[in-house]
User: What shape does this take?
Amino acid sequence: MKLYDAAAVLRSKNSGPFEITVDALFDHAATYNKIKQSGIINKETISKLYNIAPEEITEIVFFDQALGFKVTFARGVSSGSFLDRDVYGAQQHAPLMDLEVEV
Amino acid sequence: MNMEEYKILAPCGMLGYGFPKASFQKGMEHKPDAIVVDAGSTDAGPHKLGAGTAIVSKQACKKDLELMITAGAAAGIPVIIGSAGGSGARIHVEWTQSIVMEIVKEHRLSDLNIAVIWADIPHEAVKASLAAGQCEPLNMTVKPLTEERLEATTRIVAQMGHEPIIQALEAGADIIICGRAYDPSPFAAAAIHNGFDPALSYHLGKILECAALCADPGTTKDSMLGILKKDSFIIKPLNDKRKCTTISVAAHTFYEKDHPYLLHGPGLILDLEQCTFTELGDGSVEVRGSRVHETHVYKIKLEGAMRTAYRTFVVAGVRDPLLISRIEEVEELVRQQVQEYYDDISESDYEIRFINYGLNGVMGQLEPTPTPGHELGIVVDVVAKTQELADMICSSARSTFLHYGYEGRKATAGNLAFPFAPSDVPFGAVYEFSVYHLMETRDALEMFTCEFIQGGSR
Assistant: This one.
């Protein structure tokens, strides 16, 4: 199943002007736990999906109470500066959409 | 004072975004102890801080404030505005202050005590702090703050914690207009001032600063009530259309932060890992277990913006499949031709970029599927040292692109479809965050001065 279909919320946003943070949230504990335990959400996966160096990824954290995980990485260009393409960082979740996950 | 409960009404997630009057009134019926609203954000980029402009219109801001101030005055409870005017610098605070004074005058509320807390940080203070090694960039991609960049920075603010706001409350303020503040701090200040747990107060503030965004369906344009108790707090929607769930509130805890449960603020770290979220069955959620740690050294977050260039852009569409198939190659040729034509102008004085919507316009290099659609939207974006230069280069790039005779072309009348006439849009100044640093301070109050204004008399 694609992560986009498994998740109830898949969103991205700035966490400050120098970082993008991507959140995936799930409706069911079983789905969340299976994805968490599969270990597929790691630096290697994110780095490949986003075509960024692993060092630029600052956080990959699961938060059980919210049934969700968060991925945060450095922005190539800070929000609203010349060459930025997404001032709010709100459309940067797409590469994670097609990730195949087992649920 | 020994209160069992402390209630905060958050009218909306951003002052000026508006909220249903009915939700607000319902909130007032719960007899809140304070009305608190966040007015700030760096979301829209560095322009507002750099240019000294507001995020919302004066009329929108006044519409919200009028309800809040008159209700607050009638109930005899404080009204606190965080990060006034959006960026919370002097110019933004003064803008908000003038709106507050208008309302106070129009409603004859001149006996209200109005406090203003300034959050502007002098350049010299930052310079000294840098020299002393007490000022560090917050993120890995923040550029080094050279003397030149510091000088070019138009204004610098810092996020205040709850302490200066508590000081204003202690001095009897009815309305507090805060300069730049850590978003949860104005909420936390009201509660901590009345003896409630700082960890719960801050966590409540983190949720209330976006008002109904933590509910389902979520929005920043509706009111919420926060009820603090000794060991927990309750988040309560004020509109029957919305309810909070365990997940919606827990998820909001990690909204737009870099970490789901470790949240950094001035002088503190909020640790929400052990929190529990419980649905109460009436659409509200109770939260327990929030923790807070004071940091060893008190640091405040600085924000400063500098003008980097001026911009002119063109929006156009391309439909010809042959041109679409080689769009990036043709754009590079257009760029080269403009450079060759203006060989008397230094290439470092301007930059041209093409944003190809329908190909990789949104994600650029991060785009995993750069497959063009049957038509492309193109933005020719030019920045330069002056507006005149940006206008000239943009005009040249547009006309070169329009008539560029790429190899194999059959559509010899023109390459671009313009939706607007004139096609070129002079945009004005472009800014970037030049200061995004953590600065050590002696204490929480050192950089934030509070001033009282006699209601309506000034």
